[in-house]
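Take the subject:
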Amino acid sequence: MTPGAKVGVGVGVLIGTRGFVMQALRERREADPTEMLAMAERADQAGLDSVWVGDSLVSKPRFEPVTALAAIAARTSRVRIGTAVMLPVIRPVVPLAHSLATLDVISRGRLVIGAGVGGGFTPEQIKDYCAAGIAPDTRALRLTEMVQVLKRLWTEEHVTFHGQQLRVDDVTVYPRPVQKAVPILLGAHHRTGSSAQYRRAARYADGIIGITDSPEQWSEVIARVEECAAAEGRDPSQLDRVFYITVNINRDRAKASAEADQFLMSYYGVRHWEGRWGPWGAPEDVAERMAAYAKAGARHLIVRFASWNQPAQLEQFINDVVPALRRMN
């Protein structure tokens, strides 16, 4: 992904499609994509670098990401569009390769896929895999194999792959992506303590995507992945580095904290995540935190708003946070 020329680091926003579905369920009405599309258009027109959506199946109802991004692609012209993050393992690999290649064609080569193993630690998380017919304890190996197969299906004829989780026999997929292969960023996190994630990203991915780590921890993650990449004979500098933060923008810090806590409690059943996420506060606080991740090595930053009023947060972000970040760079 190309960093934003004016701020020294690419800047994008995640549109919380789960929030739109949750609001519709609470109000007993149909889910409405109007705000999602308006936010994407606003980000595109304001000169932001990217727009992202999340993923889940039954545990956290939301708009399906490939479909949502196709609509966003049709309403925008320049922003990169991506998933932060997709759970590829809950989908069959050949239909997924076809869908993503088609989406890259629709967007004229603007797609990037952030992908992760996903959590399997709660009954709700496990439901996503079980509903898709996937054993939760196979998800890491399945992801490793899926990345290999996706890249081959986008670039080769007559693909055959016999792995422990996936079997593909003499398959050719068209259309091909506009990009030679859609870039795939794999989740890499300090807090999990797993070295396998670093090796997987270093061997198969086009870059890494992180969340919840401190800037210091994120710097360590980058170093670990780059060390693994060098051992694989890859140029570590060619790996992209994307970090995803959650913020609430309000000069009244008490109001920002209260709204963020309420949002996160409704979204995840937890509150008081500032420190792992955040900050909740003034635009300058948000810009300073973003700058810290850029200094730690992030080349692209994704911002999600811990607020039910996402359009208002987006306006504050565009008008106040991005200019403050530019002044710091």
In short: The first strand starts at residue 10 and ends at 14. Residues 10-328 form a domain with the TIM Barrel fold (CATH 3.20.20.30). The first helix runs from residue 17 to 26. The chain has one domain: 10-328.
